[in-house]
């Protein structure tokens, strides 16, 4: 290919969209935000990943020892606004299936560690373990060179941005949580529930990453869990308003599995059950909430009245629909 240059052992670069920006020094702590496409080196240039159709691009902190070191190497050669292709030899990208799995799960709002086995030996011992994605399983079984098409959106110098949870030290995560909590509360008051939920989620991620290092049930683990619970309840309140009822059911149930007398979790789960027509489950949660906090009785009565009205309306609609079918 014309314009191809070697930028290191096993890496060849071709600029497809040049940039007039200055090349950053890429000091440790510099944040690079970019979209990437990952292609196989076959005749069809088969697509493996493409972040351009995701809400959030990739963010890489220079010097943080990302699990795919070749990305830091190629980003250091790029200017803000540049688009370039990088052909990387197989030894440099052998870990890509594992990295891609984690990034796909994060993009889907899932825990990237869920389902992984913790064992010695790294990739070699995971060779026969499914990653949950057929294309990544195939790539893990048969490693090969990869092409990365990188669109470098933004380069931010150290100290000019707030790091994402995964890039923070433990101390930085603890310091960020009350700030994120306060920002989420203000956004909620302003009626910006989507943005508020994102803040609560980020604070939860900080605490969850710390909790992963503690023994479940230990005093430190419990202390972190007591900090996570109110944030998760706030997150559920946002999801209720957004109509994401099954997320509310899942998260409130996770709280109640540990803290069966959490009134807020019972009430929110009751509202979510009511919204998805689980009438008996809603009545059970509302009744239990009133037992624990009698002051909720008027609010619960209102919720149950609304549920009864909706059920009656649905029954009338169903009868009318069936009547029309048999005419």
Automatic annotation (TrEMBL):
Molecular function in Gene Ontology: peptidyl-prolyl cis-trans isomerase activity
Start-end of each TPR repeat: 263-296
Record-level GO cellular component terms: cytoplasm
Keyword entries, A-Z: Cytoplasm, Phosphoprotein, Repeat, TPR repeat
InterPro entries in alphabetical order: AIP/AIPL1/TTC9, PPIase_AIP, PPIase_dom_sf, TPR-like_helical_dom_sf, TPR_rpt
Gene3D superfamilies according to UniProt: 3.10.50.40, Tetratricopeptide repeat domain
Domain named AIP/AIPL N-terminal FKBP-type PPIase: residues: 26-154
Cellular localization per UniProt: Cytoplasm
Record note on quaternary structure: Interacts with RET in the pituitary gland; this interaction prevents the formation of the AIP-survivin complex.
Role played: May play a positive role in AHR-mediated (aromatic hydrocarbon receptor) signaling, possibly by influencing its receptivity for ligand and/or its nuclear targeting.
Protein name: AH receptor-interacting protein
Native source organism of the sequence: Pyxicephalus adspersus (African bullfrog)
């Amino acid at each position: 290919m014309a314009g191809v240059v070697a930028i290191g052992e096993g890496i060849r670069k071709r600029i497809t969209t040049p940039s007039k920006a200055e090349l950053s020094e890429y000091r440790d702590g510099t944040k690079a935000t970019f979209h990437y496409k990952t292609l196989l080196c076959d005749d069809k240039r088969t697509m493996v990943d493409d972040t351009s159709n995701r809400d959030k691009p990739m963010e890489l902190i220079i010097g943080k020892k990302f699990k795919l070191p070749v990305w830091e190497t190629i980003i250091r050669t790029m200017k803000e606004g540049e688009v370039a292709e990088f052909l990387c030899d197989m030894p440099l990208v052998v870990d890509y299936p594992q990295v891609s799995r984690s990034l796909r799960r994060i993009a889907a709002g899932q825990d990237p560690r869920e389902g992984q086995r913790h064992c010695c030996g790294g990739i070699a011992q995971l060779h026969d373990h499914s990653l949950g994605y057929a294309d990544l399983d195939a790539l893990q079984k048969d490693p090969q060179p990869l092409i990365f098409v990188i669109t470098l959106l933004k380069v931010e110098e150290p100290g000019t941005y707030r790091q994402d949870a995964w890039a923070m030290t433990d101390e930085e995560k603890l310091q960020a949580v009350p700030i994120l909590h306060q920002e989420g509360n203000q956004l909620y008051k302003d009626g910006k529930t989507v943005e508020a939920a994102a803040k609560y989620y980020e604070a939860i991620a900080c605490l969850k990453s710390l909790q992963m290092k503690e023994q479940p049930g230990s005093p430190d683990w419990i202390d972190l869990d007591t900090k996570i619970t109110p944030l998760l309840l706030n997150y559920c309140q946002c999801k209720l308003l957004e109509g994401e009822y099954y997320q509310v059911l899942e998260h409130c149930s996770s709280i109640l599995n540990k803290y069966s007398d959490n009134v807020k979790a019972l009430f929110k789960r009751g509202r979510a059950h009511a919204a998805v027509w689980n009438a008996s489950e809603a009545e059970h949660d509302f009744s239990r909430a009133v037992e624990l906090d009698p002051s909720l009785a008027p609010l619960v009565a209102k919720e149950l009245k609304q549920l009864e009205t909706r059920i009656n309306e649905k029954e009338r609609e169903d009868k009318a629909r069936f009547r029309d079918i048999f005419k």
